[in-house]
């Protein structure tokens, strides 16, 4: 493992509710970020922020919120609004990256309606999620995305989705990508996820980043404001990505 070189930047990550919002091995995404930083001699620091704990909007480059069961998601949503919403809005305004996966994605919007109640969201993007009584949207999925910056361009993200919520983007909001295979936000819109500048949400997990090493690198470079990252031997990572694409039929 490469040592952190003197003067190298450190990727500072705030993991929101990692003990509760980790139902789909989302912690693997944090491990992927850590390893790809370490292999390049970049620093990596992660801090957890749980129930009742505030966050410093200026202390982190990337805020990460994974997925959870409805009960845990409800607890975290109420806590987000009470103790973290103002700070996360301030972080987004200054350009920090915010990544929400599955349940975390749903909480980036204004509300999640289910079973006669509404779970409040952060309102960082204009979207709402409504739980459907129909079949769950589940299976392997691949989407085409087009991102700016290092390691961007038109690429494919592949993963797994499993959600009963149908997420509807308001007019003017941009999806993260276009569905190639799978269901996406609603099963019929042909859209998946959301991206408003540095706020990104997606239903892809399994976990997401080990299946898409290039996207992990995009997050690292974008969060640190780097023009490029040193290349790595991604033989295994490329094979994992290819297998995820094959599973989705792309």
Automatic annotation (TrEMBL):
Pfam families: GATase_3 (PF07685). Keywords: Cell shape, Cell wall biogenesis/degradation, Glutamine amidotransferase, Hydrolase, Ligase, Peptidoglycan synthesis, Transferase. Its EC number is 6.3.5.13, 3.5.1.2. InterPro entries: Class_I_gatase-like, CobQ_GATase1, GATase_3, Lipid_II_synth_GatD. The active site is at 102 (nucleophile), 205. SUPFAM superfamilies: Class I glutamine amidotransferase-like. It catalyses: L-glutamine + H2O = L-glutamate + NH4(+); beta-D-GlcNAc-(1->4)-Mur2Ac(oyl-L-Ala-gamma-D-Glu-L-Lys-D-Ala-D-Ala)-di-trans,octa-cis-undecaprenyl diphosphate + L-glutamine + ATP + H2O = beta-D-GlcNAc-(1->4)-Mur2Ac(oyl-L-Ala-D-isoglutaminyl-L-Lys-D-Ala-D-Ala)-di-trans,octa-cis-undecaprenyl diphosphate + L-glutamate + ADP + phosphate + H(+). GO terms for molecular function: carbon-nitrogen ligase activity on lipid II; glutaminase activity; transferase activity. Substrate binds at residue 136. CDD domains: GATase1_CobQ. One of its GO terms (biological process) is cobalamin biosynthetic process. Belongs to the CobB/CobQ family. GatD subfamily. HAMAP family: Lipid_II_synth_GatD. Forms a heterodimer with MurT. The lipid II isoglutaminyl synthase complex catalyzes the formation of alpha-D-isoglutamine in the cell wall lipid II stem peptide. The GatD subunit catalyzes the hydrolysis of glutamine to glutamate and ammonia. The resulting ammonia molecule is channeled to the active site of MurT. This is Lipid II isoglutaminyl synthase (glutamine-hydrolyzing) subunit GatD. The lineage of its organism: Bacteria, Bacillati, Actinomycetota, Thermoleophilia, Solirubrobacterales. The gene is gatD.
